[in-house]
Amino acid sequence: MSRTSPRPFAPFAVTALLLASPGLTQAASFNVTSTDTHEHWQSMALSLGDERHFRAVETHSYSDATLSLNATQGVCDLPWLEMRVTLEQQQGESRAVNLVPARLRIDDQPIIDTMAEFITERGDDGFYAHFYLSDMEQLIEEMQSGEQLFIGFDQNEQEPWYMTFSLEGAGDAITRMQALCSGTAAEAASTP
Known about the structure:
Helix content: 10-25%
Shape: globular
């Protein structure tokens, strides 16, 4: 994977993949609490009714894209990696758009070949990539000590789509997210 500057996925290419249908409803809005900043990353708790999620998120590298590591209360040992790109309009349906080969690399570590599922959520203006990773524990360890995370998505006959996210502050954000999820952080139950 080359270390060239990130090349964002062309919005028209994403739009071409997504055929929005009429009759949008609002996407679920989670309450965000216990937010803390860690250099280029943030950690937070999200809740909606009895549902509780915890997130370490990088919003620094792109104005229209985020990278996050997420965990759910009760299954904190099963975190997932997600990338979100903001689209020009809310989507009309929740669906899996595509499953594509993807590559992840932290600094000079070996490339991780995986698959990414592209997903839309009804009433949400986001396009999500969920990564299928067999060794999440190793990836988290590398994210906590790394400087940059490189992502590459195959686009069939087109050039691959590359993105690069900063890992400055990821270690602290991930540690805090894990503590919030397991309930070991003192502020886990408090709100700002």
